[in-house]
Structure formats: structure tokens, C-alpha cells
Amino acid sequence: MLLNYSLKMPRAVYGGEDALQHISDLVRSNGARRVAIFTDQGIRACGLLDLPLQLVEATGAEWEILDDLPAEPSYLEVQRLIDQFKAIGADFIIACGGGSVMDTAKLASVLVTDEYGVKELLDAPGRAKKCVPTLLIPTTAGTGAEVTPNAIVAVPEKQLKVGIVNENMIADYVILDARMIRNLPRRIAASTGIDAMAHCIECFTSNKANPFSDLYALEGLDLILNHIERACDDPDALTEKNYMQIAAYYGGLAITASGTTAVHALSYPLGGRYHIAHGVSNAMLLVPVMRFNESACRARLAAVYDRCCHEQTRLRGEEEKSGWVIRRMADIVRHLDIPTSLKEFGITEDDLEDLVTAGMEVRRLLDNNVRPVTAEDARTLYQSIL
Ligand SMILES: NC(=O)c1ccc[n+]([C@@H]2O[C@H](COP(=O)([O-])OP(=O)(O)OC[C@H]3O[C@@H](n4cnc5c(N)ncnc54)[C@H](O)[C@@H]3O)[C@@H](O)[C@H]2O)c1
Ligand SMILES: [Zn+2]
Predict the structure, then answer these.
(1) Which of 128, 152, 290, 377 would be 110's cystine partner, CB 3.0–4.6 Å?
(2) Is the CB of 142 under 6 A from ligand 1?
């Protein structure tokens, strides 16, 4: 029997030198008269909005900035900003920010209606219909939210992060301009970059892996495994930073065609309950989960070695090759100074059972994991990073 798969993606992506210049043309060609610009206050304070704003202004369109958004917002905080957005009557959306900003803008693009809001989409994501075209400009190189049909919000009453998935939320246009991540603090570049690495390796080893997700996941891994350290360490390494933007984009495509697995599943309660940043919790869980999965996906990890390791001396056996890939990921996590213990976030043994219960609820992703994860396994995995 043939495997089923599908892949939907943004209508156009613009990258490379001076890619931001496309903003004016896109505003004009969409006939936009009132542009809603989603961002957050951290990004505005860095001056990252100045050039995009000039380019919108050059078109003569009116614009309004919506920046009252914390990182990793709850669905209530997202709804509050969307209520402001609805009052503007915008006919074009630009998002300039990380995953939190882009996910909010994607939700806004389907929530012009008064019939339902973010809360209702959590229960019935299929209701969403695209109302306003979107241009997403990522300022982190990690989430791939510029590509995916997903928007992730915190649900305080469940103490979980929950993904709303609907293809109507896929962006119309994306701009990848390396200047947007040039001054990204190393700490954020590191955790978001490892998030992209997690997207690629999880999708490549997922039960849902298929030829399209494999293509993007492997290419993304090649870029990340060979360039992430320089991209994070050297503010002037614009080529490597651009590689990370491309890899994050590929990671988003891999998620759209396949799906993440136990790293992201077990990470959700760490974000929802303890407010650990998405990239950080994934980075902490990545290597333990890959070690746990290794015996069930050895050939796949060996294929990652074959594609991504460019050293002169070649390893031969599958076990050696998959060992190399996991060691390489562990080296990256160590080099980039990712926190190593949940204790740094005030989490102790007493929290373990609640974590396990919440993590085991993320069935949508656990079911993609190549090795079944029992509650006992989840406990061992959380314990390994306590
Ligand atoms: N939709 C998806 O497919 C998808 C995938 C993975 C993660 N996510 C979600 O994305 C969110 C995380 O996004 P993120 O990791 O990009 O971070 P973020 O958007 O939460 O931003 C984190 C912080 O970095 C700052 N920042 C962003 N870009 C900057 C820059 N260039 N220079 C200086 N500061 C900058 C922001 O102001 C913010 O304070 C989470 O809610 C996560 O669940 C979504
Ligand atoms: Zn992620």
C-alpha cells in the first residue's frame, strides 16, 4: 500500500540580500489600504520595525501597530490583541517577530468574524477561514511558524500549550532577511536554533515521515548541524544566520508534511505549567529523547550521518553513525549553554507526577513517536533532566 502525504506551503517566500524591500510591492499588489502590523515590544525596542515601517509608509497605506503581546502568550492575551485588530478593519497583515507574534498574526488572519474566537478554535480548529492576507517576517530562526498551519497558545486552566492547526492559517508571503536576526541575543538564537533542529530530526524519525518531509528535514539538518554554532556565536556571520533562517523554514515544512514527536510532546507542559521558553524545553529534552528512540530509528539516524557529516574519515556501521548524530546534537546543546537541569526553573521531584500526567495528554504528538512512550518512560525522561 502506498503512503499518504500532503504538503501545503506559503504562496511565495523572498530571501537573501535586502529581501525586506519586497514589503512595499506586496502591500501595493494586494491593494492594501490599512495594514495591521503585529510585533512585540522587545522587537520594537531593538529598532527592528523601523525599516519595515518605512517600506509600508512608502506605499501610502495607513498602518497600525499591535505590540501588546508577551512572549508565549495565553489564548486570552492573543484574543485581547485580536479584538484590537478587529477594530482597525485592516485588509493586510504583516507580522514581524518570533513564533509568538507570528502565531498571533496567523490567528488574527482567520478571526475577523464575531462568530468565534481563539477559545472556540481550540475546541474546533476546522472552523477557521482565511479573511485577511498575511506577510510573515521571522525575527528568530527556529519555530518555522512562518510556514506551518499551526498556532500555539498557552491554556492556563490546563497548564498546557495547545496547538491549533488549520491550513487557512498558512501565510501568504514570507520574507527571510538575515538582518532581522543579526542582533538576536545568543541565548535566544541558541534555543530557537535548537528548536529548528528538533523539528527536523523529530519529523525525520516520526511515524509520519514521508518523502516530502524527509527532503526538507535532511536539508535542514545539514544546514543546522554544520552552521548553528557560528550563527549563534558570531554577530557578523550573516551567511550562517541566513542558513539558520532557511533551515528553520525547512523545519516548518517538515512539520507541515510530517509531525513532531516526543520531544515536543513532553515539552508542552514545561511551557504551559512552568513557562520555560519553547526552544529551551525542547533543547533540554532533545538528546534524552533521541537516546530513548535510537534503537527504533537507527537506520534513519545513520541516514542523517550519511547526508550531514562532511568529515574525511567515514564511519561504517549504522550504530556508529547514529551514535555520531546524537553526540553531535549533544555537543551543540552543550556548546550553546542551554540550561541542563529543570531545577534551574524551580522544578523538583514533587512536580514529576503532574508533569508525566500532562505530558502523556499530548497524544497528537506522542502517537508520532517511533518508539511508544509509556508513563514510566515519560517519568524516566523527565527525571533525566531534573
Ligand atoms: N506555529 C508553529 O508552528 C510553532 C512552532 C514552534 C513553536 N511555536 C511557538 O512559538 C513561540 C516561541 O517563539 P520564538 O521561540 O520565536 O520566541 P518568541 O516569539 O516568544 O520571542 C522570544 C523573545 O525574543 C525576543 N526577540 C525575538 N526576535 C528578536 C530579535 N531579532 N532581536 C531581539 N529580541 C528578539 C522577543 O521580543 C521575545 O521577548 C511559542 O509560543 C511556541 O509554542 C510555534
Ligand atoms: Zn518547536
Answers:
(1) 128
(2) yes
| Cross-strand pairs, 135 | 94, 173
Ligand 1 touching residue 101 (CB < 6 A): yes
Minimal-distance CA residue to ligand 1 atom 21? 98
**Residue-by-residue pLDDT tens, the chain, 386 positions:** 888 888 999 999 999 999 999 999 999 999 999 999 999 999 999 999 999 999 999 999 999 999 999 999 999 999 999 999 999 999 999 999 999 999 999 999 999 999 999 999 999 999 999 999 999 999 999 999 999 999 999 999 988 888 999 999 999 999 999 999 999 999 999 999 999 999 999 999 999 999 999 999 999 999 999 999 999 999 999 999 999 999 999 999 999 999 999 999 999 999 988 999 999 999 999 999 999 999 999 999 999 999 999 998 899 999 999 999 999 999 999 999 999 899 999 999 999 999 999 999 999 999 999 999 999 999 999 999 99
Query: Residues lining ligand 2 (ion), CB within 5 A?
Result: 195
Burial bucket for residue 116 (CB in 10 Å: 0-12, 13-18, 19+): middle
Q: Is the CB of 267 under 6 A from ligand 1?
A: no
Residues facing residue 162 across a β-bridge: 153
Alpha-carbon 26 to chain mean position: 24
Is domain 12-181 classified as CATH 3.40.50.1970? yes
Q: Where are the domains of the chain?
A: 12-181, 186-384
**Whether 171 contacts 147, CB under 8 Å:** yes
Whether residue 63 contacts residue 49, with contact meaning beta carbons closer than 8 Å, is answered with no
Å from CA of 295 to ligand 1 middle: 33
